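Exam prep: given the inputs below (a chain plus NAP), describe the expected output before reading on.
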Amino acid sequence: MTQKSVVITGASTGIGKACALWMDRAGWRVFAGVRKEADGAVLRAEASERLTPVLVDVTDAASIAAMAAQVSAAVGDGGLHGLVNNAGIATGGVLEFVDLDELRRVLEVNVTGQLAVTQPLIPLLRPARGRIVMMSSIAGRSATPLLGLYAASKHALEAITDSLRLELHPWGIQVSSIQPGTIATPIWGKALDFAKDVVPTYPPKALELYGPLVEALFKSLPKNDAKGIPPEAVAEAVFHALTAPTPRTRYVVGQDAKVRMWLERLPDRLRDRVMLGRIPKYGGEGDGMMG
Ligand SMILES: NC(=O)c1ccc[n+]([C@@H]2O[C@H](COP(=O)([O-])OP(=O)(O)OC[C@H]3O[C@@H](n4cnc5c(N)ncnc54)[C@H](OP(=O)(O)O)[C@@H]3O)[C@@H](O)[C@H]2O)c1
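Solution:
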């Protein structure tokens, strides 16, 4: 039987690492995308010899081309069976004051980067009728205050996922999106560090107007790590998307994500009222709707 193979980007930590180790344990040949050799070495030590770290920054065309060439040479005519576009960043800010370069940055990593990696790998996926999995988020269906930039990037990724699934239908290449809720990974600590750096650069007027909302974000982000479910819950969904005879087009992972999905089915005004009720500025407690 042919050895099945998968490329997973952003495998240094969190969800990507959990997916890489899960697929390795399932007997697949994993090409684990990392940006630092040291992260690749750590992953190698935890996995079987089948796992190969590959250096790839999804915003760097040369590194993507080199990774695609390396994978192509390794899989040969049999092709590639899976691509998990997982690399991503979380960011946010008050939309009235946010630096527009921050929007460009998150779109570059979370949207353009995913397609940039996918393009050169599609010809490898074709012979194997491989599958593509996009690591979206419940934020790809549900936008909350202060995380509008992140939600915009994940909504865009959902659109790319749907178009790609239709375009690749003739070759039997399935495309799924994963929509996790809050998962315990380093992403939330990184987002908090970013917020702590950027908020002091806002004009005083911004804090006068949005102070309580920003405070709520500062309180809510650290809680995300504690209340998040383990990244293996996401890896299990990715495994299903890569191996089930009929993969789902979307996987909502986590109870909080399911509640958010339910909320998004309400009429907009009612949905807004529920969200506003969770935000301190408007009398709520500031929990649950900020992540
Ligand atoms: N954690 C959650 O609650 C949650 C919920 C929904 C969706 N997600 C999504 O899940 C994915 C993984 O996030 P995570 O929670 O596991 O966070 P994480 O632990 O911070 O992992 C993010 C990964 O992306 C990589 N990355 C960032 N920028 C990159 C770039 N330009 N090129 C290549 N790799 C890059 C990071 O590499 P370095 O280590 O080199 O920075 C890291 O491996 C993201 O797409 C995120 O949006 C997470």
